[in-house]
Write a structure and sequence with these properties.
Layout (H helix, E strand, L loop, with lengths): L5 H10 L12 E2 L3 H10 L5 E6 L5 H7 L4 E6 L5 H7 L6 E5 L7 H8 L4 E7 L5 H11 L4 E7 H7 L10 H9 E9 L4 E2 L6 E8 L10 H13 L5 H9 L5 H10 L13 H19 L5
Parallel strand pairs: 2-3, 2-5, 3-4, 5-6
Antiparallel strand pairs: 1-8, 6-9, 7-9
Helix pairs in contact: 2-3, 9-10, 9-12, 10-11, 11-12
């Protein structure tokens, strides 16, 4: 079982001549209970193939290998490959891929290495790539669940409710793709070196189809991005910044009020259903403008 207290981890890394890289945001778990809790929270079993991003020294990888049929661990830092060769020696069902998750064809890598399984992600994501990594994992479109350890404030952002300070465009993007839930916090003392922030483990249950029957995803997110570009602005003014070259403020105001919202409402107060209603209304107006029917 590859879980290490500080002293054991130091000896392992010294034996391989490894030094931590701040640029790669490396923080390795030294609390042996955390990988087990993450793997349990992910809910994977022998029907799953699991993609792990950034296995580090393999503590979580080992826990996953005892539960899943197959594990593919993608590690950017080539210096860790000999470490993983040692710590994952007892795991015949793991494949270590040397590469950058941001440059990898995620879907092809998973399907080629773990065919005919259900798929999940389980990872201690480096803080500096959390948003783009989650975006890439969502867009791969093959995972049932994504369970990740991230900075606590990021976890709160993923799970935020409308009209709260944490709620933003990436919240809506996340909740469009998944139903997120914070499982537990992880204190800085569980890592070496210790980060300056508390972490949290989030489980994202991926949606099998877009929520609320959303059909025009591109227009939906165009409205969302406009709404949060200047979050203190009224929704009508935000929409004007994005669609004003085609639709007048008067028309946009009517679209907002026809959805049942006050004309002074701010976009940051809308939930997914609200954004969907507005995007449908704007879409209808854009269509009407192209056919000469908008008034």
């Amino acid at each position: 079982m590859a879980s290490y207290h500080d002293g054991d981890l130091k000896k392992l890394l010294e034996r391989h001549g490894f030094h931590f890289s701040k640029a790669l945001g490396q923080n390795f778990l030294t609390d042996a209970t955390i990988p087990e809790r993450i793997a349990d929270g992910a809910g994977v079993d022998a029907s799953f193939g699991v993609l792990e991003v950034g296995p580090g020294v393999g503590a979580l990888t080992n826990a996953l290998c005892r539960r899943a049929a197959r594990v593919v661990a993608v590690e950017l830092d080539k210096r860790l490959l000999p470490v993983l060769n040692e710590t994952l020696a007892p795991c015949p069902n793991v494949t270590v891929v040397s590469g950058d998750i941001m440059k990898l064809d995620i879907k092809t890598t998973v399907l080629n290495n773990m065919p005919n399984l259900r798929y999940a992600v389980c990872a201690n994501l480096p803080y500096n790539i959390t948003t783009p990594a989650l975006t890439a994992l969502f867009e791969a479109g093959i995972f049932e669940t994504i369970t990740v350890m991230v900075q606590k404030e990021v976890a709160q952002r993923l799970c935020a409710k409308p009209a709260t300070p944490e709620y933003g465009a990436f919240t809506v993007f996340t909740q469009f793709h998944a139903e997120p839930k914070i499982l537990f916090d992880v204190p800085p003392g569980a890592f070496m070196p210790q980060p300056k922030v508390t972490s949290a483990v989030v489980r994202l249950q991926m949606r099998p189809s877009p929520p609320d029957g959303i059909e025009d995803e591109g227009l939906f997110f165009r409205v969302v991005r406009a709404s949060f570009a200047q979050r203190r602005k009224m929704l009508v003014n935000s929409l004007g910044s994005a669609f004003g070259s085609t639709l007048s403020k008067e028309i946009l105001t009517r679209a907002v009020t026809d959805c049942g919202f006050d004309e002074k409402i701010r976009g940051e107060t809308l939930d997914i259903a609200g954004f969907h209603a507005v995007s449908r209304a704007v879409g209808a107006l854009l269509f009407a403008s192209r056919t000469g029917e908008a008034r």
